[in-house]
Amino acid sequence: MKMNVNVNDTPSNKNSGKGGDVVIVYRNYSELKHKDRLIKYLGFHDHLTGLYNRRFYQEEMKRLDKERNIPISIVMADINGLKLVNDAYGYKAGDELIRKIAGIISRECRADDIIARIGGDEFAIILPGTNPDQARRFAARISEAMAYEKPDKLIPSLAIGFAVKQDVSDNIDDIFRNAEDDMNRQKLSESASVKSRTIVLILNALYERNSLEMSHSKRVGQLCEELASQMLFKRDDANQLRTAGILHDIGKIRIDESILKKPEELNENEWHEVMKHPETGYRILSSVNGFSEIAVYVKQHQERWDGLGYPNALKGDEISVQARIISVTSAYAAMTSEKPYGKALSEDQAILEIKKNSGSQFDPEVAIIFVEKVLKKPW
Question: How many domains in the chain?
Answer without folding.
Answer: 3
